[in-house]
C-alpha cells in the first residue's frame, strides 16, 4: 500500500498504469481515491494514474483540523515531486475540482490539461460555511453512518441504482469522522476561484451529471463559458458522481478529450 509522509501526514495514494502521460485523479467529499476504481481499470493501459486520499479519508491518516485547499495542494505537489511527475492532466470531481483550482493558482506549469467535474468555482456563502461547521460537528458526534445517510442521496441521481448506493456508503465508511470534519472545514475556507477561471490557459474539459443537484449543470455551463476554449460534456442518467453512475459515458468524455491533447 503506497504511503507518503507529506507535511507530517501519512498520505495513501494509488499510482497505477503503464502510460508515459500522467493523470492525477482528485476525489469528491466524503469519499476517497477508490471512487476512481472503474476509471483506473479502464485507463491504466494507456496512462499513469495517480490518486491520493485526502487526510482522514480512505487509507490516509487524519491530518489538520481543517484540510484547506492550500494544505491539500501542498500534499499533491509534494506527492508529484516524490513521484518525479513534472506535468500531468488533473481531473478533479467536486471537492477535487476546488483543489484543482488551487493547484492552478500555485502551479499552473504542472498542468497539461484540466478536467473540472461536477464542481463549482465560487466560494461558500456565509450560511453554507456555517452549515459545513454544523456538519463537521455532527460527523464527529454521530459518526460515519450519519454522514452516509446525509450524503448518499445528495451524491446520486434520484432513484439511484442500489449497487451505487452500496458503493458510496462503503466509500464513506472507509474514512474517519475526523477526516470528514476536516474536509468540510477546509472547503468552508476555500477562496473564490471565479477569477482563476479566466487565467487558465491549459486545455480544459468541464463534465457534469445531468441530474447533479449539488453542483447543478448551470454551474458547469458558467465555468465552461469562463475558461477560454473549454469543452463542456453533460452525462445522462447521472447525479453528482457520473464516474460511478454512468462510468462508460464519463470515461468516453474523458478519454476522447485526453487523446486530443497536445503532448
Ligand atoms: C463533493 O462532492 O466533493 C462535495 O459535495 C462538495 C461540497 O460539499 O461542496
Account of the protein in words:
The protein is α/β, with parallel strands linked by helices. It has 11 helices and 8 strands. Strands 1-2-4-3-5-6-7-8 form an 8-stranded mixed β-sheet, sandwiched between helices. Helix 4 packs antiparallel against helix 7. The radius of gyration is 17 Å and the shape is globular. Bound molecules: D-malate. D-malate binds next to loops. The site of D-malate has 7 residues, from loops.
Widest sheet, order of strands = 1-2-4-3-5-6-7-8
Bound molecule kinds, no repeats = D-malate
Work out the strand percent: 15-25%
The number of strands is: 8
Q: Number of helix segments? A: 11
Bulk shape: globular
Characterize the largest beta sheet: strand count, sense, and whether it forms a barrel. Answer: 8 strands, mixed
Low-confidence stretches: none
Give the terminus-to-terminus CA distance: 31 Å
Q: Cα-atom Rg, whole angstroms?
A: 17 Å
Q: What structural class do helix, strand and pairing data support?
A: alpha/beta
List the helices and strands in order.
EEEHEHEHEHHHHHEHEHH
| Average pLDDT reading | 97
Amino acid at each position: 500500500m503506497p504511503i507518503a509522509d507529506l507535511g507530517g501526514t501519512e498520505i495513501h495514494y494509488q499510482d497505477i498504469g503503464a502510460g508515459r502521460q500522467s493523470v492525477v485523479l482528485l476525489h469528491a467529499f466524503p469519499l476517497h481515491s477508490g471512487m476512481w476504481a472503474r476509471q483506473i481499470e479502464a485507463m491504466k493501459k494507456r496512462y499513469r494514474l495517480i490518486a491520493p486520499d485526502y487526510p482522514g479519508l480512505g487509507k490516509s491518516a487524519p491530518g489538520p483540523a481543517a484540510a484547506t485547499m492550500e494544505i491539500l495542494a501542498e500534499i499533491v505537489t509534494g506527492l508529484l515531486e516524490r513521484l518525479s511527475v513534472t506535468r500531468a492532466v488533473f481531473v478533479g470531481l467536486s471537492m477535487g475540482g476546488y483543489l484543482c483550482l488551487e493547484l492552478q493558482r500555485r502551479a499552473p506549469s504542472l498542468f497539461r490539461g484540466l478536467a473540472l467535474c461536477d464542481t463549482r468555482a465560487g466560494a461558500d456563502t456565509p450560511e453554507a460555511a456555517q452549515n459545513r461547521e454544523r456538519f463537521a460537528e455532527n460527523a464527529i458526534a454521530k459518526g460515519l453512518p450519519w454522514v452516509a445517510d446525509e450524503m448518499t442521496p445528495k451524491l446520486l441521481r434520484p432513484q439511484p441504482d442500489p449497487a451505487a448506493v452500496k458503493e458510496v456508503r462503503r466509500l464513506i465508511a472507509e474514512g474517519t469522522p475526523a477526516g470528514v470534519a476536516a474536509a468540510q472545514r477546509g472547503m468552508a475556507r476555500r477562496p473564490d476561484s471565479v477569477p482563476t477561471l479566466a487565467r487558465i490557459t491549459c486545455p480544459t474539459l468541464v463534465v457534469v451529471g445531468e441530474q447533479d443537484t449539488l453542483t447543478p449543470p448551470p454551474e458547469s455551463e458558467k465555468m465552461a463559458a469562463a475558461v477560454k476554449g473549454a469543452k463542456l460534456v453533460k452525462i445522462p442518467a447521472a447525479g453528482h458522481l457520473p464516474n460511478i453512475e454512468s462510468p462508460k459515458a464519463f470515461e468516453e468524455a474523458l478519454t476522447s478529450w485526453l487523446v486530443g491533447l497536445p503532448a
